[in-house]
Amino acid sequence: MAGKIREINANEYREAVLDQKLAVLDFYSTECPPCEALAAKFEPLSEIYGDDVAFVKIFRQGNRELATELGVTGSPTLLFYRNGEIVGDKLSGGIKRSEIMKNLDALVGDQRAEEIKAGIEPVETDADVVILGGGPAGLTAGVYLAQARLKTVLVDIALPGGYVATTHQVSNYPGFIEPQNGMMLSHYMSEQAKENGVEFRAAVEVNSVDLDKKTVKIDGFETIRGKRLLIATGSRPRPLGIPGELEFRGDGISYCATCDAKYFDDKDVIVIGGGNSAIEEALFISKFAKSITIIHQFEELQANKVAQEKIFADKKVNFLFSHEPREFKRYGTMDMGVVAEDLKTGEQKEIRGHGVFVFIGFIANLEGLDNLDLDQWGYITTDAEMRTNIDGVYAAGDIKSKMYRQITTAVNDGTVAAISISKELSE
Ligand SMILES: Cc1cc2nc3c(=O)[nH]c(=O)nc-3n(C[C@H](O)[C@H](O)[C@H](O)COP(=O)(O)OP(=O)(O)OC[C@H]3O[C@@H](n4cnc5c(N)ncnc54)[C@H](O)[C@@H]3O)c2cc1C
Q1: The predicted structure's pLDDT at residue 3
Q2: What is the pTM of this model?
C-alpha cells in the first residue's frame, strides 16, 4: 500500500486504532468518487504525519457493524483518535486537505505540528493544460485534451460534477430517452475524463492563480504550471442582499432545492424568483411541501412554457406577482417571514412559511482571477475559440459571457476550447 497506511478489518480495530496513542481511521467504499479524492490526500499525509499518527483504513461495506457502532453512515468518513477516544471533527464527503491537517495538528500538538509542517516539501507539477473547474465544461474539455495526448490537470474546489451533480433530473441532455439523475450524469462525465487520463485535484483549496504565468497553487504546497489555462469555474446563486439573508442562510433560507427540499416535507415553503431555475426547483419542492408561495418581481413568469404549464397546474402553488422581498424574519426555530413590497403600490406585507428558497439568478465564480475582460454582467468575454484577453487563458461554460447557460452549451464551450488549445499547442 502506498504511504504509511494500514488496511484493517473490524477484528483488528482494537489493536490498530484503539491501542494506538494517536490514530486516524478512514471508512472508505469502492466506486466512491469522494473516497478517491480523499485517497489522493490521505496517502501523502500519511507520509508526513505517519511517524506520529497511525493511519488506518477500513472498507465500510465489509465492516458494517463497526461502522454502525461508530455512527458512520457514509463514505468516506474520517475519525481521529487519542488514546482510544474519538476526538476532533468527524469529517465526511468532499474532505479538504486543510481540514485533515487541522485535526492531525491538534492530535500531535502545536509544537510538533510546526516541526512537521516545516518539513513539507513544495511540489511543482508541469502540465500542458490546467483546467479550473470540473463541471460539464471543464470535464468535456478534459476528455478532448487528454485524447489529444496533452497532459491535463483539472482542479476543483469541490468534487467534480458542477451543477449537474446537484440537479435532481436532467431531461434535456441528448442521448437519453428518460430523464437522467444529475448525480449519475456528472459521475459518468468525470469517470470518462479520468479514464481518458485527466489528472484530478478534487476538493482542494485554491490559494492563488497567476493567469499570466498560468500557475495555480493548491493546498498550500503544490504549484501546477500549464502551457495553457482554461477557466471553467461556473457561477453560483445570486443572493438578494437584504436584511436577514446572511443570518438565516442555511438555517431557513436555501439556494438548492435538491439539497434541502426534503427538509420541508408537508411544510409551507416560499420560493423567490420566476425564471427557469425557480420554477423547475419549485416543481421539485412541490413533491415534498404542503404549499408553495412564489414571489416574483414581474407580472408574469419568465420560465419556459412547459415549466409554466406544470406550475400553473400544481394546486399547491400560489403566486405573488409584482412583489419584491425586502427583509427576512425568523419566528422561533421553524417559522420564516418574508416582508415583500408591492412594486405597484409600495405597500409591504409579510408572508409566513417554514422555509424560503431563493432562485434569482447567478454570479460568476471569478475570485482570485484578475485582469480579465468582463461583460456588463460580470462574465468573461471570449472570442469564438474561447480565448480571453489574456494570452494562453481560455474560458468555457457558465463563467463566460453568452446567451444561454445549459449543460449542452457548457459542453460545447469545453469542446471548442479544447480543440483550439490542442491546435495551438501542436503548431
Ligand atoms: C438548479 C439548476 C438546475 C439546472 N438544470 C439544468 C438542466 O436540467 N439542463 C441543463 O442543460 N442545464 C441545467 N442547469 C444549468 C447547468 O447545470 C449549467 O449550465 C452547467 O452546469 C454549467 O456547467 P459549467 O461547467 O460551466 O459550470 P458548473 O456546472 O457550475 O461547474 C463549475 C465547477 O467549477 C468549480 N469551481 C468553482 N470555483 C472554482 C475555483 N475557484 N477553482 C476551481 N474550481 C472551481 C465548482 O466546484 C464546479 O465543480 C441547471 C442549473 C441549476 C442551477
Answers
A1: 61
A2: 0.84
